[in-house]
Amino acid sequence: MKLPALSVIIPNYNHAEYLPRSLGAILDQPVQPLEILVMDDASTDNSVEVIENLVRQHPHVRLHRNERNLGVVPNINRGIDLARGDYVLSAAADDELVPGFLEKSLRLLAQHPQAALSATISDFREAHTGLNWLWGVGIANAPSYLSPARMVELEKQGKFFIPPNSVIMKRSALQEVGRFIPELKFCCDWYAMTVAAFRHGMCFVPEPLAICHVQPNSYYHRVRRDETEYRKTLEELLRRLHLPENKDVLPLLREAGSLFLFAGTMLKILLSHPEYRYLITPRFLRKNLSHSAKLFLKKFAPTGLVKAYMKSSGYRMRPT
Question: 132: helix, coil or strand?
């Protein structure tokens, strides 16, 4: 079976210490991508030196340097514009892939060309808290194509989640949703993946083949600490979801209660905007309150209690 052509895009800014691990994990894959584009966003550490050493050893690794710092999302979009593959993987410079990730994901995508993306179970690791959990457990028992209707059913059961660090997207589907929209900041990947998947369906490999090293000062956490900025971003998300081109997807998200993921802030926004209140369904409310409780416990409760609670809630928590 001929596997699809894949472009891996690695946005980097001052992550020289992590690049050997993340790039090494990709280069150790039995199946290699068409190209690995490392997009350096005007780093001030020795990132360029590290990348150039790898470029000399591996011809399909290419370095692209920005003359000035563009920011995470525009830097990724520049990589998408330069990519030659039919599929793209945006891989964080501080994450890593387990051997077999590329082959198993691409093989499934080759069998289901209608799918917008493929994902796997993801192993999330928080070194600063000692927590370690799996996202995506229970979605499927075998490598599968999930139709939008099946995704809705899984979401109703509380079993659906797309681990963003494990996603390979069809480039045409990504272009269709506007690539990664800078105004959506930390949730630009959620918007792109969710809209594309609920429109075209997705593939899923039920194995923990991607590792996310959660950093305390990540892009998400920086935005999340500013409640005003966080609320503004979610309001833009709602505006985008209500654009005419998303009229096929929004009813599915409402039925599934998918917006619960943004917890209490999303609920406050929906309550304060009469035109959005129809999204507050019993399912959304139940899932939103449950998720808000988990986030509260994770932030304030002892680590042992957090592990026990989240394990019982389906996250399969385990100590590092």
Answer: strand
> Rounded to whole angstroms, how far apart are CA atoms 131 and 106?
30
Please give the chain's pLDDT, 320 residues, in tens. 899 999 999 999 999 999 999 999 999 999 999 999 999 999 999 999 999 999 999 999 999 999 999 999 999 999 999 999 999 999 998 899 999 999 999 999 999 999 999 999 999 888 777 788 898 999 999 999 999 999 999 999 989 999 999 999 999 999 999 999 999 999 999 999 999 999 999 999 999 999 998 876 666 666 667 788 999 999 999 999 999 999 999 999 999 999 999 989 999 999 999 999 999 999 999 999 888 888 777 777 787 777 676 666 555 534 33
Contact 88, 6 (CB under 8 A): yes
Q: State residue 243 phi and psi, 5-degree precision.
A: -70, 150
- Residues 6 or more apart from 237 whose CB is under 8 A from it? 184, 187, 191, 262
CB burial string 91-126: b at 16+ within 10 A, e below: bbbbbbbbeebbebbbbbbeebeebbbbbbbbbbbb
Find all residues with CB under 8 Å of 154, minimum gap 6, and list them: 139, 146, 160
d(CA 149, CA 159): 14
- Residue 183: both structure tokens together: 């105004």
